[in-house]
Amino acid sequence: MSTTIDVDDDSPAHPGEHHDHGPSDGTYFKVFWVLVAITALEVSTYFWDVWFGESSWNLAVPLLLILMVVKFVLIASVFMHLRFDSKLLTRIFYFGLGLACIVYVAALSVMNIWTDNGNPWFNDPPPAVTPTTVVEGGAGG
Amino acid sequence: MTDVALEPIEDVEFPDDVHATSTGISNPKLAMWTYLASDCLLFGGLISTYLLYRNRPGNIPGLSGSPLRASELFNIPFTSMTSFVLLMSSLTMVLAVNSMIRGDKERTRLWLVSTAILGAMFLGGQVYEFTEFVREGLGFTSNVSASAFYTLTGFHGAHVAVGVIMLLSAAVYSMRRQLNAEAVEVLGLYWHFVDIVWVVIFAIVYLIP
To answer: Which ipTM did the prediction report?
Structure first.
């Protein structure tokens, strides 16, 4: 009886034996400068309300999220070699990341983080403290 | 009957002392990726907690606390510089991995030490930032917003500190013995992960109001 194990075609034949499958130094430098440019664009959004008015935040927030994802994927794919390594590693990492996103988006949604519902315990600014009057000999006294 | 000369088992050489695995991926690399996947959940929890509490400084009935928020004290130009330093450390790390693949030990050591220095600079920036915040009156227990902020960035800083120690250890080890190319790559995976976590923290915590 023989057992067949499926192995990704792009897996190294001999684990531990390092194969020269990664990008060159020049490619790394190019990716680095792209990352620097994206970071500069991200930082510039901090000053957009001064330059373009507060309404610019409607554009800045989605842009920041997109740029963050682009940087994340670039570093994971090129610097961490996910693009050149076994697909199994990509699946493992993005499974963990996806699970984290689902769990915490669900948890934050349950706690009404997306809406301004007046819940003083989560997300929204707390209500102002108002002095209360204690009536002596009130109900139940 | 013919005599069969059996080769002694100790003469069989495995590449880099690593045994074959059913997945075709070495165990240290697989273990590191699994650890990084689980670390996503840790940082996801910390980031979510901060998002939940960031608008909740003091003045809650029944709770004493400073009305100050960490976001009011952010120094974005300074944090941008430290982010750039961490990004640069990712570049020096991949250069170390490539040097190791080429078998250039001297350069590998140089890039490993450079990465460690850049990581230490980032940590110095974080210590400076924390010191400034405390000087402004925002300590770890000032309010829940501050606690969530310090816990999140503190955990990230602890990861960077561990990375710096591992980088320096690898550099020292390489002076005495032969460093495995894959060990440097696995170390690099950890270091890049620390960088991508900061990419998320920088955007969500610092830049999005």
So the answer is: 0.84
